Amino acid sequence: MNTPTEEAMIVLNNVSKWYGDFNVLRNCTTSIHKGEVVVVCGPSGSGKSTLIKTVNGLERVENGQIFVNGTEVTSKRTNLAELRSRVGMVFQHFELFPHLNIIHNLVLAQEKVLKRNREEAREKALALLSRVGLDQHTEKYPSQLSGGQQQRVAIARALCMDPVAMLFDEPTSALDPEMINEVLDVMVELAYEGMTMMVVTHEMGFARKVAHRVLFMEEGLILEDTPKEQFFDSPQTQRAKEFLASIISH
Amino acid sequence: MFDFDWSIIDQSLPLLGQGVMVTLKITLTSIVLGMVIGTLLAVARISIYAPLRWLSAAYVNCFRSVPLVMVLLWFYLIVPQFLTKFLNLSPLTDIRLVSAMVAFTAFEAAYYAEIIRAGMNSVSRGQNYAALALGMTKSQTLTYVILPQAFRVMTPLLLTQGVILFQDTALVYIIGLADFFRTATNIGKTTGYEIEMVLFAGAGYFVVCFCVSLAVTVVKKRLKL
Question: DSSP 3-state assignment of A22?
Answer without folding.
Answer: strand
